[in-house]
Amino acid sequence: MMEMSQTNIKSTATLSIQSEVENILEVSHLKKTFQIKSPDGKKGLLKAVDDVSFTIKKGETFSLVGESGCGKSTLGRTLLGLYPPDRGSKILFNNEDITNISKTNRKNFARKAQLIFQDPSACLNPRRTIKQILMEPFKIHKIKNGEAKITELMDMVGLPSRFLDRYPHEMSGGQKQRVGIARALALDPELVVCDEPVSALDVSIQAQVINLLEDLQKQLNLTYLFISHDLSVVHHISDRVAVMYLGKIVELATRDELYENTQHPYTKALLSSIPDVSGEVREKIILTGDVPSPSNPPSGCRFHTRCPAVMDICRTKEPEFKQTNSNHFVACHLCTK
Amino acid sequence: MRTFKSFITQKGFLFKLGLIICALWFIVVIFAPLIATHSTTAQDLSIRYEPPSLSHLFGTDELGRDVFSRVMYGSRISLTAGIITVICALSIGILFGGIAGYKGGKVDEIMMRFSELIMAFPPLILAMVIAAALGPSILNSVIAMAIIWWPNYARLMRSMVISLKESEYVTASRVMGASHIRVLFLEILPNSFGPLLVMATLDLGNAILMFSGLSFLGLGTQPPTPEWGSMVSDGAKVIQNWWVSTFPGLAIFSISIAANFVGDGLRDFLDPKLQKE
After folding, report:
1. Do A137 and B172 touch (CB under 8 A)?
2. Cβ-Cβ contacts under 8 Å for A327 (sequence gap 6 or more)
3. Interface test with B, best of A101, A118, A123, A125 (most B CBs within 10 A)
4. What is the mean pLDDT of residues A252-257?
5. What is the pTM of this model?
6. In this structure, what CATH number is given to the domain that contains residue B141?
7. Which of B123, B199, B188 is nearest to B155 (CA)?
8. Cα-based distances in Å from B31 to B17, B28, B161, B209, B225
9. Assembly ipTM
10. Domain A21-112+189-262 sits in which CATH superfamily?
């Protein structure tokens, strides 16, 4: 009888773990401010990322979309420790605080989180052969047996091993991006930040690379933070999507929820801009004006200068980032009325 | 993979010429005693200013010394001094400029102002002051020259580092967990070596000339020792006896242009993009 009850307790415990997927990354109140100097010599502050909170679950693809300059790349790179975050920010990786990571931990952290770059030509050192580039992570972390690993990696990303002796300039964009992916995967990371991994590639190659990323995710149980401005790609690959505007997340929801039950006017405008080939006539929301400068953001809601549904309150009061249903968060006065 | 041998064969005529001239001078430096036909210091006033002949290939100078032998022996001091000066200046410049450019901000500001301080002085006069303070000797002259020369390399290195440190492959290396030293010396330096190398080879001739300037002032080599620069300046006083200054001058010219050809070729060798399949 005793034994029976014990096994019961065990099985319920495992069940609860399975039902609740662990968070790999927890970000709260992340801020990143840069000091800038305007041409007339005045110093100013540029809030590239301003008070952003979200969590990423193990094994999911979390997308970050927004216009250029909205801070999505800065956010991704700050998470990887490339820029020190401002005070008050908190980043937990596997429940471990990595906000102000030390040098040695930084090196260990590199084995768990990696980055795939936008421009495959720029991210490979032009003076090194592919073999030397892929050996780099093993040399830095003093891992033996790198040669065998490299062949495995090349195989994994679908490149023939004869490419190992080539230089980056002797390869096409898609092939270089595969090398970039192989390098990011060399140390068996858990989290991969994909910083617009396909926006520099041809459309036909984009599909190949996206499929490769999806296959690798299944194969290696990876978690992706997918940064992009291409909403069709994001719709294809994501589990959850966050929309950024001027350093803030304005809407965060599961993919289908976001695409079908769009709430924030900015997201609506973005989604209406996706080119459609079905012939169906849709109303396009055209935003006027430029994105305001992040060094001098508008008061109240940052989107009020371009919002088609602007109200008086938007100009003075900043909307709170609120949950509207179980998997949907929005920062807009319209939705919290 | 490319090898140096295949590179030489496919590289142009000038690179080969430069390589041959450098190799010849290297042989001369090592075997100077075997090549020289006369003693470098033996004076014979009865044969002052003899034009080139079979017994004196490059003629004789004002003390009747054999110019050919002096040019051959002079290669030892001139070349060594020139090469060591350039290598020292290059090393200091790479380190200094690399750190300044990589660190940026206040560190960069202070380090660069310091290098400008050195550049603000007239180079030869500063070299003289340093060499005189250290005491006249070949080594001290080399040190003095390296001290006034490195800011040029530091500035070049700094500008290369500033543009390259923002590149994505440097970021990739950082994300990979590479240390700053590794990034600076293994990722950035190889990509900035081309311009540095060309500058260094161009400077070799200048360094030899400046060394001779110091020697002329009695700070480098002392008079009986054969040295190209002082031989040129000796001969310049008696220009009608052209051979006295022409041959050491040709020696300086040949080594600086050969070094430049080789440097140019090496830069191409180090750059995979310029390599033909």
Report:
1. no
2. A240, A253, A254, A257
3. A125
4. 90
5. 0.80
6. 1.10.3720.10
7. B199
8. 21, 5, 42, 23, 17
9. 0.81
10. P-loop containing nucleotide triphosphate hydrolases (3.40.50.300)
